[in-house]
Structures are given as C-alpha cells and as structure tokens.
C-alpha cells in the first residue's frame, strides 16, 4: 500500500505544553506527524529552539493541522481564523468554547475543530450518556496548589490570602462560565465537561486550593436517567508550570497520532 505523506503540524503557542508537544513531534512520539513550525507571541521564541517561526497565515498554509496550546484569549482570537480558512484545529484551551458566539465560530467549520481530552477522561462515556436517557446534572471539583491559582485580577490582599492558606479551602463555587472567566488557564476542563454533556448551565464547578496537594485533582460526577458516573484524575503538575498537568502534552500527542494515521483509536 502506498505510504501517506506525514501530516504537517503547526503549533499555536510554545509554552510549557507547546514545547513538550514540539519535542514529542521531533522525537517521533506521534507517528505520521511532523512539526512544521510554531506561531509564538514573543519573537524569537521558536527559532531559539530550532523551530520555524510562522505567522498565522503561514501556519495555516504550511500545515495540515494547527494545534492550539496558547491559552483561552489566543484560542478565541486566532482559532476562528484557522477554522474559517478550512484548516483543522486541535484545541487544548477548550475554554474558548464557553462563549456561544465563539463556540459557533469554532465548531461550525469549514475546518474541523477537535477537542483534546487534556487533563481529564471519561468524556466519551458522558457524551454517550447524554443520548441514552440523558444526564440531568454534573459537577467538577478541581484541587490545585494555591500558587498555581494566582490570577492577574486578584487584589494584593486576595493573592496574599490565597498564598497564605494552611488548609484546603474552596475558592470558587460557580457555573462553567464563572469558572473559565476567573481561572482561564486552570479550568478548561470545566468547559470540556460541558462540551461533552451539553450541561452548560447545570454543571457546578468547585475549585479548591490545597497547600499540601501533591497532585492536581479533577473529580467529575454526573447523573441522570442514563446512570451515575464518577471519574477522578490525580495528575502530576508540570514542574515549570504547576497550573497545567503533565499529562496534557501526552494527550495532545495521542490526539495528533490518531489524526495522522489509521489505527484502533478510541473516538
Ligand atoms: N484542556 C485541558 O485539559 C487543559 C488546557 N490547558 C490550556 O493550555 C494552555 C497552555 O498551557 P501552558 O502551555 O501550560 O501555558 P504557558 O503559559 O506555559 O504557555 C502558553 C504559551 O502561549 C503563548 N501565547 C499566548 N498568546 C499567544 C498568541 N496570541 N500567539 C502565540 N502564542 C501565544 C505564550 O507566549 P509568551 O511566552 O510570549 O507568554 C506562552 O508561551 C492553558 O492556558 C490552558 O488554556 C492547560 C491545561 C489543561
Ligand atoms: O492541567 C490541568 O490539570 C487542568 C487545567 O489547567 C485546565 O483545565 O485549564
């Protein structure tokens, strides 16, 4: 059988996750895919790593797949341009789907928007459950170290209180929209859960800051006529960026590999 040419992947963002995905692509961790280059915000950040630095138009033109790992604001701004050009997009900052207008721009084509499973699992089963009698409610309880949860909107007093915590403390109880608006680089998983279940308004999100948490935890619970579901992940955080779980770059590489070659993937 003739071999398919490798799929060329352009990265959008080369931070903690993007750099690991780039290394994985260069090391053959996603067979059938090669790195075309990266779109960066800080000029020189890609060339310093020996990676071709692309602007967005080059990235769209020179790749078969754009992989976003640049954060929610960049995904909202640049993701729709990729989709409008008819190029496929693998989205890591799934929080970009929280706003219905952005969601339409990202999901209505002509490019295909794929969602990375990121730091959590179980979304395939929950998606099926929404069809089999349905789900009525869902919740996500995320626990991270306080230092990973400091946000630019926090006052100096709020920031000091968060960093001074000595016991696990719930710092958010709210909707998916509240969660991603307040913690855009920590609660993309909440939006992923809502995208899988369709429970955009019925999902409760809780965020716990735990000064002794050895791992980042995500506990998903959902129930309804289809059944009762509970999934728990305890991920090692990335040492250089504890807000993100280490598993995420591997989830992205699995996704790229599945898109790049035929095989027995879970879809
Ligand atoms: N779905 C999931 O389960 C998860 C999703 N995420 C998402 O992944 C994102 C990336 O995570 P992580 O790598 O740890 O974060 P980092 O902050 O380490 O990396 C983000 C990178 O994107 C770059 N960037 C920002 N805006 C742009 C832009 N407009 N164009 C090009 N590059 C840009 C930043 O550039 P600069 O260096 O110049 O600041 C930075 O290098 C998170 O913000 C979050 O939204 C993370 C974890 C789990
Ligand atoms: O990496 C994680 O554990 C989750 C995360 O940051 C996010 O969903 O934004």
Automatic annotation (TrEMBL):
Keywords: NAD, NADP, Oxidoreductase, Pyridine nucleotide biosynthesis. Coiled coil: none annotated. It catalyses: L-aspartate + NAD(+) + H2O = oxaloacetate + NH4(+) + NADH + H(+); L-aspartate + NADP(+) + H2O = oxaloacetate + NH4(+) + NADPH + H(+). NAD(+) binds at residues 119, 188. It comes from Leucobacter iarius. InterPro entries: Asp/hSer_DH_NAD-bd, Asp_DH, Asp_DH_prok, NAD(P)-bd_dom_sf. Its EC number is 1.4.1.21. Residues 13-108 form the Aspartate/homoserine dehydrogenase NAD-binding domain. This is L-aspartate dehydrogenase. Residues 165-252 form the Aspartate dehydrogenase domain. Belongs to the L-aspartate dehydrogenase family. The iminoaspartate product is unstable in aqueous solution and can decompose to oxaloacetate and ammonia. The keyword Oxidoreductase applies. The active site is at 218. Specifically catalyzes the NAD or NADP-dependent dehydrogenation of L-aspartate to iminoaspartate. Pathway: Cofactor biosynthesis; NAD(+) biosynthesis; iminoaspartate from L-aspartate (dehydrogenase route): step 1/1.
């Amino acid at each position: 059988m003739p071999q398919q040419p490798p799929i060329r992947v352009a990265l959008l963002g080369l931070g903690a996750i993007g750099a690991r995905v780039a290394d994985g692509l260069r090391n053959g961790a996603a067979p059938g895919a090669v790195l075309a280059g990266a779109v960066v915000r800080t000029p020189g950040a890609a060339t310093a790593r020996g990676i071709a630095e692309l602007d967005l138009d080059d990235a769209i033109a020179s790749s078969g797949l754009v992989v976003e790992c640049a954060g929610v604001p960049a995904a909202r701004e640049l993701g729709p341009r990729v989709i409008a050009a008819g190029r496929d997009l693998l989205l890591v900052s799934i929080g970009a789907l929280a706003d219905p207008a952005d969601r339409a721009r990202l999901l209505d084509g002509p490019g295909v928007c794929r969602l990375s499973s990121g730091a959590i699992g179980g979304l395939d089963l929950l998606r099926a459950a929404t069809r089999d009698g349905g789900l009525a409610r869902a919740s996500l309880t995320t626990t991270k170290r306080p230092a990973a949860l400091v946000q630019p909107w926090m006052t100096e007093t709020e920031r000091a209180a968060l960093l001074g915590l000595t016991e696990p403390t719930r710092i958010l109880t709210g909707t998916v929209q509240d969660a991603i608006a307040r913690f855009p680089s920590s609660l993309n998983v909440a939006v992923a859960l809502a995208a899988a279940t369709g429970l955009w308004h019925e999902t409760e999100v809780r965020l716990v800051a735990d000064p002794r948490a050895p791992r980042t935890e995500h506990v998903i619970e959902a129930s309804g006529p289809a059944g009762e579901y509970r999934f728990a992940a305890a991920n090692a955080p990335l040492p250089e960026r504890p807000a993100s779980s280490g598993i995420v770059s591997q989830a992205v590489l699995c996704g790229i590999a599945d898109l790049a070659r035929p095989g027995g993937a879970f879809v």
